[in-house]
Amino acid sequence: MDNKNQVKDNSTQQDVKSLDTNKTSLKNSRASLAFDMLKRNVNDLNDSSMLSSPINADAETQFHTFTPNFLFKISDIRGVLQKNKIWAKKMVDGDSEFFNRLSLQQQPKLLWIGCSDSRVPANQILSLQPGEVFVHRNIANVVLNSDINCLSVLQFAIEVLKVEHIIVCGHYGCGGVAYSMKEKSDLDLPIIDIWLRTLKDLFEDHEEDFKLLKDDKAKTDFLCELNVANSVLNVCRNSIIQKAWKAGQKISGKNS
Ligand SMILES: [Zn+2]
Fold first, then answer.
1. What is the Å distance from ligand 1's center to 105 Cα?
2. Does 206 qualify as catalytic in the annotation?
3. Segment 112-124, tens digit of pLDDT
4. DSSP-derived 3-state class of residue 95
5. Contact 177/140 with Cβ under 8 angstroms?
């Protein structure tokens, strides 16, 4: 790191001014174009909290770390990037061919459909390495046969990767499931309201069953379970997997 290229002031305006100075040496580069764009954004937002830490003037580094606070605190993202470097080194130290193998082709035999909740990451929970599980996640692990994102993942997993197992994983304490059960909320999330409509339908369809449960936690847990069952059913009913089963492809217990 070159000290003279470090932007030392923390204020927004001075950071932008320093970027102007550094820009001279970065003329016609990709970073220069990025700085122009960022400067415009910073000026538009006119928020001194946006840029809160010294920035390395190295073009590539600056391009990747000059991120507004509303997306990521710069200090945090630096820590994340550093963790990534440490992790990569650890992997190579343990297996010098690790990344060479990954660069060839992924061959996961498992598709995981789970919740976007940061507490339920597929690889860590299953203790699997990169390359060992193909993953689709969304809020509340919902599988809808109208969701082109999920269906694309399903098609690729079945028809290209030839996965042998599909896991739909829900989890207790799911914020999406709990939100869907509220008649009123302080949150105004109209898109998520649409997304979770299927959970509200499940809740209404099983209204009598829910009445038998005494407390909110039991009800939320039950809806988590119903939701997983419903998503599994939707996977099984989908034409992609139906076609594969009909053709004798080994997936999740059938034809195996
Ligand atoms: Zn969840």
1. 30
2. no
3. 999 999 999 999 9
4. coil
5. yes
pLDDT, tens digit, 9 for 90 and up, residues 208-217: 999 999 899 9
The single residue of 171, 193, 206, 236 carrying the catalytic annotation is: 171
Q: Which residue among 30, 119, 197, 237 is the active-site one?
A: 119
Is the residue at 253 inside a domain?
no
Question: Can you give the CATH number for the domain in which 206 is found?
Answer: 3.40.1050.10
192-245 pLDDT per residue, tens: 999 999 999 999 999 999 999 989 999 999 999 999 999 999 999 999 999 999
Instruction: Tell me the average pLDDT of the chain.
Output: 79
Residue 236 is a catalytic residue:
no
* Given the residues 78, 150, 174, 224, the one annotated as active site: 174
54 and 120 in one domain?
no
Cα–Cα distance measured from residue 197 to residue 143, given in angstroms and rounded to the nearest whole number: 12
pLDDT of residue 182: 87
Binding residues for Zn(2+): 115, 117, 171, 174
Residue stretches of the annotated binding site: 115, 117, 171, 174
Give, in degrees to the nearest 5, the angle at Cα 195 between 189 and 198.
125
Instruction: Supply the range of the domain harboring residue 191.
Output: 106-246
Q: Which residues surround ligand 1, an ion (CB under 5 A)?
A: 115, 117, 174, 176
Task: Answer yes or no: do 63 and 127 share one domain.
Answer: no
Q: What is the pTM of this model?
A: 0.70
How far is residue 247's CA from residue 192's CA, in Å, rounded to a whole number?
37
State in Å: Cα 63 to ligand 1 middle.
Answer: 33
87 in a structural domain: no
| Rounded Cα gap, residues 35 and 148, in angstroms | 35
| 78 given a catalytic annotation | no
